[in-house]
Amino acid sequence: MNPADTMPKLVMDLARAMVREPGSVAVTVEEFLGTIEVNLTCDDDDVRRLVGAGGGTIGSLAVVAKALAFGCGKSVFVRRVSPLRGTRGSGHAVPFTHCQNWDADESPRTATLSLLRRVVEACYCQPCEITEVTRANDEASSQVDVLIRAAPDGEWTRKVASALNIIFATIGNQVGRRLHVRIIETNLGGEGDGAPGHGGAAGLPRAERLTSNPVAPR
């Protein structure tokens, strides 16, 4: 399947997970010669949640959109977030609800980690494993480690990892959970010679640097 075909749906799922009125979120895509332009609309009160402080959240969403569409041969831009007025109290089903119990059956935890898995596997074009650890000194905070096989080096890979951390921290705000996501490069099968990016404990420190020093999306 063309990556450009799956990207808008995942971008919409991420946007809906970050807002109070997910039913009002819509994504439109316009394709030009060599370019894909993505625009979002949402409830008036949710614009600030999608934009984020200093544009950090929408910038992170743009980075992830580019990663999701990688390989389609086109440049991807998330141009704007526009308010869709008059949608407050629309009565749409809310998949992520702040007051729900993170650890309950069919809770936001299940939906959030499932969404994280789908997005990571689409961004990195490979399966992943996810582990969640509740921080001992803060029961409302979780560290989520996402294990992937060797990923490309460089600033772009770090940007994608940092963008995912910013996005899922925002999602955590909607489900009453402080989330910190780390993308860790390892060998899922437990094999390898221990070289960086090829499994073994020796490969983990370099991989952890993908998110330990976040790079602000541009």
Descriptors:
single chain, 218 residues, alpha/beta, GMP Synthetase, Chain A, domain 3, 2 domains, three-stranded mixed β-sheet, 36% helix, disordered C terminus
Describe the model:
The chain is an alpha/beta fold. The chain has two domains: 3-83, GMP Synthetase, Chain A, domain 3, CATH 3.30.300.20; 108-212. It has helices spanning 3-17, 47-51, 56-68, 108-124, 155-174, 204-212; strands at residues 26-32, 35-42, 75-83, 129-134, 141-148, 178-185. The strands form two sheets. Strands 1-2-3 form a three-stranded mixed β-sheet. Strands 4-5-6 form a three-stranded mixed β-sheet. A hairpin with a 2-residue loop joins strand 1 and strand 2 (35-42). Helix 3 crosses helix 5 (155-174). The radius of gyration is 17 Å and the shape is globular. Residues 87-100 and 188-218 have low confidence and may be disordered.
